[in-house]
Design brief:
The complex is a heterotrimer of chains A (about 160), B (about 550) and C (about 55). With about 550 residues, chain B is mostly helical. Chain B has 16 helices and no strands. In chain B, helix 2 packs antiparallel against helix 5, helix 4 runs antiparallel to helix 5 and helix 13 runs antiparallel to helix 14. Chain C is mainly α and about 55 residues long. The chains are: A alpha+beta (about 160), B mainly alpha (about 550), C mainly alpha (about 55). Chains A and B meet through helix 1, strand 7 and strand 9 of A and helix 6, helix 8, helix 9 and helix 11 of B. Chain A: It catalyses: 4 Fe(II)-[cytochrome c] + O2 + 8 H(+)(in) = 4 Fe(III)-[cytochrome c] + 2 H2O + 4 H(+)(out). Chain A: Subunits I and II form the functional core of the enzyme complex. Electrons originating in cytochrome c are transferred via heme a and Cu(A) to the binuclear center formed by heme a3 and Cu(B). Chain A: Its main location: other.
Chain lengths: ~160, ~550, ~55
């Protein structure tokens, strides 16, 4: 092996290991594990029988560490709720389910981007820190009306109790 | 006739692709040219639709077209090319195929052809607008899944013939290094046999009974996981033939030796090990898989980057060594000594340039939670267009430049060589523009696999459309390049016959005479390690998909 | 392989081993380091964007 080749392979693999270490630390210590990881089942035919998804929307969270739970139901070709307000600065646990095929739940310009598959609940914890309107789209092909699936998350300045439903 | 080429004689110019094998190779290559044209036309129309300035006529659906584009380019074009090229490489470096081996090649060819035609009918009649990944529970006509299964079985037949040819050489010359190109083709074939088991099981035991109505529901997580166990190895199945040419053919085009035989073999073995147990990096944002197993496969994915780092070094080393032999003395002036007028070099070289951002983008995609930044955005489409859509396909083009005339007994004329250069530059410009626009739009959130939409007038969607117009411009240049390619390949096959046909360049390596590295030729060991890694990476996640009682899903036809 | 051939093979192996370390690969080294730097910068760029959207 040429001397330069050895140096290059050390630098190359070294950087790859560094990337992995950074990802690992960010996952374990900052809670940035990949979205939707884990297994929570739900029957796709009886999604509505589940309290959380009968009237999806924003609710105060009973989970420790979260201010709100935000529930979404995806189906061909719409999201429920179609619009939701979230107070700025809140820590939100998002849970999304589908009643039919696979959908891709993506909130544009955020890291909220996860698959929604029949039979499973997709969960992701996040903060909404910046005021604005965020477009929600479907990024997994689900049929002819795929691009009609939208919703809007409005992050509004904290004042009063506008968030209670 | 079908004798093994003697180890002392591996680089004789008299070694040519056998004429009967040549016909089989040519049959495969004709599908490549046809698929390129059809798939390219579909791609052009897609970019035009997404620009918002064009609507599809005759009730053709965008997703129907997208299914066609994916199936015919990602599966049909690549499979026929790989089978054709590997048969040629074996015939050239190990010796002509015997009757059984060649017959298996033909059976494979006809099965693949039949499967392709049936799949095409299903797509054309709008019975299968489920894209080439056919994610359940969107449910296509059963014939679509059967057709895809037949195509895979066809590749198995062809691969079996190729492996038999390789083993025949190895048996006669025990203890010798097997010819490099035949070794590499065999690595690719073994990887293919292992990785297709998952998807074949999924299609046969899940999709076909379900689409026939024999079963009511399908386990979606399981089907996706089995698909991606194959799906990522698939991209290496595309890439390794290009690497074969980079390692073993290009140095000869330059007129020099390859950098290192053992390094080339080692990198291929690493690809064999790490191409399969990494599919979950396509499922990083999915429910149904625990974070730990996602993490483990991310680590394994990073291992598959290592052989590409090795490849980068050895390619630069060949170029530099060649340039220095030609008299270069400065730090980087050896670049000037490369054969910039030779399309056989320029086409793959342009591909290599694309592989730099392509590889880096791949590292970002595979970086665990960072995948959320880009998952299912059009960034990903940009990424695989500068991996399979440039380094791989441009190298395939470079190979076809010499392989077609080598087989038909003609030569590359100056004019055809120039056409090859124009092809390379047009492709590079078109792909550069299109893929850059895709990457930037993807970072701004634009989704992949989506027809033109204004998303209810959202401001951000407006920005995406600007990028989509650029993609259409790039797509148009790419289609022009495809027309050049088709005309070029037809002329390369039909030129006047000569007594000294175009050479199939195969370079000896600088360490050609170094003794054999035994474990690299120990196939039993290689296969055991490969299967072992697959079991480590997949046993628990797949078991969980059975034991966690994930409810199955009905089929839907939503197009 | 005859003994003579083996001798020749060994001889050329030594020559070739020699060859490899004697090759002037400064340019190659520069190029791969450039590649590594590009990889580094791009990855951290993406990571920063990821953290920014967290």
């Amino acid at each position: 092996m040429h001397k330069f080749e050895k140096i290059w392979m050390s630098i190359g693999t070294g950087s790859l290991i560094l990337f992995l270490v950074i990802l690992g630390v960010s996952a374990v210590h900052a809670g940035h594990t990949p979205a939707a990881s884990g297994i929570e089942t739900i029957h796709p035919d009886y999604v509505r029988d589940d309290n959380r998804f009968s009237e999806p929307g924003l609710y105060e969270s009973s989970e420790e560490g979260y201010d709100y739970d935000l529930y979404y139901v995806a189906s061909a070709f719409r999201y429920e709720p179609a619009e939701v307000e979230v107070p700025q600065g809140s820590r939100v646990r998002m849970q999304v389910v589908t009643t039919d095929v696979v959908h891709g739940f993506q909130v544009v310009n955020t890291n909220i981007n996860m698959m929604v598959e029949p039979g499973l609940v997709s969960t992701y914890g996040t903060n909404f820190n910046t005021v604005g309107e965020y477009l929600v789209i479907c990024n997994e092909y689900c049929g002819v009306g795929h691009t009609d699936m939208t919703s809007v998350i409005k992050v509004v300045p904290e004042e009063g109790d506008a968030e209670d439903e | 006739m079908s004798r093994n080429i003697h180890p002392d004689n591996l680089f004789s110019l008299n070694n040519r692709v056998d004429s009967k094998d040549g016909r089989l190779v040519l049959a495969n290559m004709i599908w490549v040219i046809f698929a390129l044209f059809i798939g390219g036309a579909a791609g052009l129309l897609q970019t035009l639709v997404r620009s918002g300035m064009f609507e599809l006529p005759f009730g053709i659906g965008y997703y129907q077209l997208l299914t066609l584009h994916g199936v015919i380019l990602a599966l049909v074009l690549t499979f026929f090319f790989i089978m054709g090229f590997q048969i040629a490489a074996l015939s050239k470096t190990a010796g002509a195929l015997n009757r059984t081996e060649r017959r298996l090649g033909w059976i494979g060819f006809w099965l693949m052809s039949a499967g392709t035609l049936v799949a095409a009918v299903m797509i054309a009649t709008n019975e299968a607008s489920v894209l080439y990944t056919f994610y359940a529970p969107l449910q296509a006509h059963a014939f679509y899944y059967i057709a895809l299964a037949v195509i895979i079985v066809g590749t198995w037949c062809s691969v079996a013939g190729q492996l038999m040819r390789y083993i025949r050489w190895k048996r006669e010359f025990r203890g010798h290094k097997t010819p490099l190109l035949s070794y590499m083709a065999s690595i690719n074939n073994v990887m293919w046999l292992v990785c297709t088991i998952g998807v074949a099981a999924s299609v046969i035991f899940q999709y076909i009974p379900w689409s026939l109505g024999l079963t009511d529901r399908i386990n979606v997580s399981l089907s996706r996981t089995l698909f991606w166990m194959f799906g990522h190895a698939l991209v290496y199945f595309w890439l390794l033939p290009a690497y074969m040419a980079w390692y073993a053919v290009l140095p000869k085009v330059l007129g020099t030796e390859g950098f290192s035989d053992s390094l080339a073999r080692l990198s291929f073995v690493l690809f064999l090990f790490f191409s399969i147990p990494v599919g979950i990096h396509h499922q990083l944002t999915e429910p149904g898989i625990d974070a730990f197993w996602k993490g483990l496969q991310v680590v394994l994915t990073f291992a598959v980057i290592v052989p590409s780092l090795m490849t980068a070094f050895s390619l630069f080393a060949v170029f530099e060594t060649h340039g220095r032999q030609m008299g270069a003395t400065g730090l980087l002036d050896w670049f000037k000594k490369l054969p910039w007028k030779d399309a056989r070099f320029v086409l793959p070289f342009l591909g290599m340039l694309f592989f730099i951002p392509g590889g880096i983008g791949g590292i970002i995609n595979a970086s665990g939670q960072m995948n959320q930044l880009v998952h299912n955005t059009i960034w990903v489409v940009g990424h695989f267009h500068i991996t399979v859509g440039a380094p791989v396909i441009l190298t395939y083009f470079g190979i076809m430049m010499f392989l077609l005339p080598h087989i038909t007994g003609t030569r590359i004329t100056k004019q055809l060589n120039n056409m090859g250069l124009y092809l390379g530059y047009t492709w590079t410009f078109g792909m550069g523009l299109m893929s850059a626009a895709m990457h930037f739009a993807g970072l701004r959130g634009a989704p992949r696999r989506s027809t033109y939409s204004e998303y209810g007038g959202a401001g951000i969607a407006d920005e995406w459309i600007t990028y989509q117009i650029l993609q259409a411009v790039g797509g148009t240049f790419l289609f022009v390049a495809i027309i050049i390619a088709v005309l070029l390949f037809i002329q390369l096959m039909t030129g006047p016959k000569t007594n000294v046909p175009e050479e199939f360049p195969v370079a000896p390596m600088m360490d050609q005479n170094a003794p054999v590295t035994k474990w690299l030729e120990n196939w039993r060991l290689l296969i055991i390690i490969t299967v072992f890694l697959v079991l480590i990476a997949y046993t628990v996640p797949i078991t969980q998909m059975f034991t966690e009682n994930i409810p199955g899903a009905h089929g839907y036809k939503l197009w | 392989m005859t003994e003579k051939n083996e001798d020749r093979a060994r001889e050329s192996l030594e020559i070739h081993e020699e060859d490899h370390s004697k090759l002037d690969l400064r340019g190659t080294f520069t190029m791969v380091l450039f590649l590594g730097a590009l990889m580094f910068v791009s990855w951290f760029g993406a990571f920063m964007l990821f953290l920014g959207r967290m």
